[in-house]
């Protein structure tokens, strides 16, 4: 057992700057093994938060990047052929439930609804996972918890969680940190000066104001860290911002010009 689960322990402390009471609320939720839902825009720190909490609680973390081609078997497991014949291999959800890990389903709305329903028996008082193909019922380990995340900005009638799924979870809202905290995060993660970090955050704030007015999504904290990392490597700030901030989020020439102008405002 130890060999299987040890690889999922977060060995070193991930840097995470709390912005409110999310750490305390999550600790309370974990103490009663409440399934948790993290909602917020892309690149705002949801995954880093889960990694930090797994480290803080000293629990293994199994992360699944959900996608529309993912099947229930990808989560719970399947029979595989090898040299010795047919053998059952647990999926990530089954491993987490069996050995007591936090199972993190990232961008869960990308998965088909008929796939996500397999988590239902684990998210109520039963805390079980039926392996129908194997004829086994896993009783979840006492340390097991399930966490899901998604970006509400991408919701649609076709891609949303059922109420029967949502109401099994507690929820924490995430957003981009305030100017001071985000600047501190960018400076810490990249090594740029506080002055440059503040300029990068100011550019992002201008872009975020354009969400819904030409941009589907604003510049994320993750993208700012990319830009800062390039600047530390002696890339000119204008070029770093063009590569890491402007070009990835839009192909519209007018929008690119507007964002390039914002960059020039702060890095003239």
TrEMBL record:
InterPro entries: ATPase_dyneun-rel_AAA, CbbQ/NirQ/NorQ/GpvN, CbbQ_C, P-loop_NTPase. Residues 36-169 form the ATPase dynein-related AAA domain. It comes from the Bacteria. It comes from Nitrosomonas aestuarii. Residues 182-265 form the CbbQ/NirQ/NorQ C-terminal domain. Belongs to the CbbQ/NirQ/NorQ/GpvN family. GO terms for molecular function: ATP binding; ATP hydrolysis activity. This is Nitric oxide reductase NorQ protein. Keywords: ATP-binding, Nucleotide-binding.
